[in-house]
Specification:
Growth Hormone, Chain: A, 21 helices, mainly alpha, 4 domains
């Protein structure tokens, strides 16, 4: 039934209140997404405690992201083999157990190994939760359910650095892992009680009993190798000087060859680990493009803004967190609004289009800032950007799966979340690369004006020199100190301009992708935003 939307209500067993299922599966997902950012601010403490450098400790982040990226696309395939509930509970158990082991790690090698297992467990949670929600809720309520899921996915990365900083400074870095344990145990207990596989999945699994397993191990190996290499490139590229590093060049060749071979291989398989043929569905294919750009902007901004607040505006980490936090509140307030509107049969395409325009406008507004902007304006601009995100996430998720048959939804969620994850990784890589290059460019252009023939420069230098002489320094020393302060101001301005450039790039990305949503077919609740039996 690829040609049209589902028409019958899902026959999957449901608890009396499906919101119990939504809360159950969102618990573990929130902790998993939180873990992608919570360790960032703890790296110096981890390095000091384990007797390694901060650069070596940064592999704590890389190993988690690599394992996470590898498991994401394979989650739907594995769910089909062993059952979605069993796979989800296995992932929660692995994530919880490895969190305990991470907290107990006596050295860096052990910690990195445990982070690999933690990332592998976490990688299957998000696609599984999406599939569970799609199969659990009646069509008019799926938008609101995905909105709750969206709050976890968008709010957790914002909250992560603040929570990680507070725990590390007041307790111990090991507690950033231990806090996962009670949540994981509660999620396991509730999942066992209220989550069920849909009938079609149970029937398919029973039909395969006694038959040889059709395992696409070669395709899985190619995808794991390619995505793993790509994730290391994204995460380590700036530190290793990108393509001036032989290590990065080798990884790039591996990624290109592996992923190209994976695409060719997967398109020829009857039961591929990553079903790329789903991209032929117009809604799903365009939905992947939109979510890729959306999370490029989200995660890019999440890295960009705190760095800018601290390095350019001079705020401490706590103040920077206070400026960013209201944006998370905007997500929590307006995400349910988008879910409510979908339940009222508002076309999801218009919601996504509106959200993209809001994100683009907020980002463009941020690109026009100067270094004299007040903290209140910074808060408003951050809230405006995340206000737009609240109208993108749930509608684009609902629209993407709208015309897919039930048995493909589990595979689709794995592919969709892989695309989203890669967009987030690229957004972070773009920020780290562009900040360095644009900062050097702006500084070289500004320095061109710092000559004895430029009257404004001469006036500022003389004014600063006089101030230092008034403070008691001799003329020669005062002159040197004045030049040093002018150079410092030049660096600050160049750095600020590079941050504003990135906001402009994000705004153009949002504006360019916004019209694509109208290439999708009409997406309203009455068309069936939940699973149905076919």
């Amino acid at each position: 039934m690829n040609g049209g939307p589902p028409t019958a209500a899902a026959a999957a067993p449901r608890v009396r209140n499906p919101w119990i299922v939504a809360i159950t599966v969102t618990l573990a997902t929130f902790m998993e997404v939180l873990d992608t950012t919570i360790a960032n601010v703890s790296l110096p403490y981890i390095a000091g405690d384990l007797g390694v450098t901060v650069d070596e400790a940064s592999w704590v982040l890389t190993t988690y992201l690599v394992a996470n990226a590898i498991v994401l696309p394979a989650s739907g395939w594995v769910s089909g083999l062993i059952g979605r509930k069993r796979f989800y509970m296995t992932c929660v158990f692995l994530f919880t157990l490895s969190s305990i082991l991470c907290g107990m790690a006596p050295n860096l090698s052990t910690l990195l190994l445990c982070r690999v297992f933690q990332g592998a467990g976490g990688g299957g949670l998000q696609p599984s939760e999406q599939a569970i929600l799609l199969d659990t809720f009646p069509r008019r309520k799926v938008g609101m359910a995905l909105a709750v899921y969206g709050i976890a996915v968008l709010f957790a990365p914002i909250l992560g650095p603040t929570v990680g900083g507070y725990i590390t400074e007041n307790y111990n870095w090991r507690w950033i892992f231990y806090i996962n344990v009670p949540v994981g145990c509660l999620s396991l207990f509730l999942t066992g009680l209220v989550v069920h596989d849909p009938p079609w999945m149970t029937e398919e699994r029973h039909a395969r009993r006694g038959k040889p397993l059709d395992l696409d191990l070669f395709g899985l190996g190619l995808i794991a190798l390619g995505l793993g290499a790509l994730e290391v490139i994204y995460d380590r590229g700036q530190e290793d000087d990108w393509f001036n590093s032989r290590f990065i060049l080798i990884l790039t060749v591996i990624a290109v060859i592996s992923l190209t071979a994976a695409v060719a291989w997967e398109l020829r398989q009857r039961n591929p680990v990553l079903n790329l043929r789903l991209l032929k569905d117009r809604n799903f294919g365009i939905g992947c493009i939109v979510i890729y750009i959306t999370f490029l902007i989200v995660y890019g901004s999440n890295v960009l803004l705190p760095q800018m607040l601290q390095s350019v505006f001079g705020y401490d980490a706590f103040t920077a967190g206070l400026i960013m936090s209201p944006g998370g509140i905007a997500v929590m307030v307006f995400m349910p609004v988008s879910g409510f509107l979908m339940g009222r049969q508002v076309d999801a395409r218009w919601l996504v289009f509106f959200g993209m325009l809001a994100v683009g406008t907020a980002s463009y507004w941020s690109s026009l800032m100067n270094l004299d902007v007040s903290p209140g304006i910074l808060v408003i601009r951050r809230c405006a950007q995340l206000f737009g995100m609240a109208f993108i996430f749930a509608p684009i998720n609902a629209s993407a799966y709208l015309y897919l048959p039930d048995h493909e939804r589990t595979n689709a969620t794995g592919l969709f979340n892989m695309v989203r994850n890669e967009g987030a990784s690229l957004g972070i890589a773009i920020v780290t690369l562009a900040l360095a290059q644009r900062g050097q460019l702006h500084q070289s252009r500004l320095v061109e004006s710092l000559t004895p023939f430029d009257q404004p420069f001469v006036d500022v230098r003389n004014l600063l020199s006089q101030q230092f002489q008034t403070a008691g320094y001799d003329a020669a020393t005062a002159g040197q100190m004045a030049l040093a302060q002018v150079y410092q101001l030049t660096q600050q301005q160049a750095s600020g301009m590079s941050y504003f450039d990135l906001f402009w790039i994000f705004s153009m990305a949002a504006y360019c992708v916004a019209p694509l949503v109208f290439l999708m077919r009409r997406s309203v609740a009455e068309k069936g935003l939940t699973a149905a039996s076919h």
